[in-house]
Specification:
single chain, about 200 residues, alpha+beta, two-stranded antiparallel sheet, about 25% helix
């Protein structure tokens, strides 16, 4: 006779004032048994449980992912990722950008185990799309973290006021108001994000 280990789960509401701290190993274990949750972890080991995004934000994000995936499928220059992918950044945090891309050589340098869990690197390119529940200050902090951990290019897309903040490695932040498109320039050669599908 075969027995199955059943884990009884109950919902837990955690007030924002309470900070839960866990190690990277504990984060992996927690994420594996809570696959339906969107989890992140800061460099100071604070656990972040992210609220689901609304349908409009999900649709906008799928447009970004679709365009990035299509470009990468044609160029074969790296690997593209959606928001369900978590990366273990050099500073120790675990982050899940709304969209990300890693150059093929950097991806190939990872072990199979690192590829299957949380890749031990910061993506070359990241996108964060502001949803209704996101605060701009928290997203800006996250973008700076990507920048400091090696992201070569990052876009913070704020559909609320139709602005984009661009984060280049070792450069000042640039802000664009109501752009129709964004160029990946030398990081994503030939890639242009059509923002008319995002606004």
């Amino acid at each position: 006779m075969t027995t199955t280990n059943l884990i009884k789960t109950i919902p837990v509401n955690i007030p924002k004032e309470i900070k839960l701290k866990i190690t990277h190993e504990q984060f992996i274990e927690l994420a594996l048994v809570n696959r339906d949750l969107q989890l992140e972890r800061t460099a100071t080991e604070e656990l972040i449980i992210m609220a689901p995004k609304g349908s409009i934000t999900g649709n906008r994000n799928s447009s970004i992912i679709g365009q990035l995936w299509s470009w990468n499928y044609q160029t074969k220059l790296g690997k593209s990722f959606n928001s369900s992918s978590s990366f273990h950044l050099p500073n120790g945090s675990n982050r899940s950008p709304d969209a990300a891309w890693v150059k093929q050589e950097r991806w190939d340098a990872l072990t199979r185990e690192q590829q299957e869990t949380f890749a031990l690197l910061c993506p070359d390119f990241v996108v964060e799309l502001r949803s209704k529940n996101d605060t701009i200050l928290e997203l800006q902090k996250k973008m700076k973290e990507y920048q400091e951990n090696g992201a070569r290019l990052g876009w913070l897309i704020n559909s609320k006021n139709r602005t984009v903040e661009t984060y280049w490695q070792n450069q000042e932040i640039e802000i664009y108001e109501n752009p129709d498109s964004l160029s990946g320039e030398n990081v994503l050669p030939g890639f242009a994000l059509d923002l008319t599908e995002v606004w």
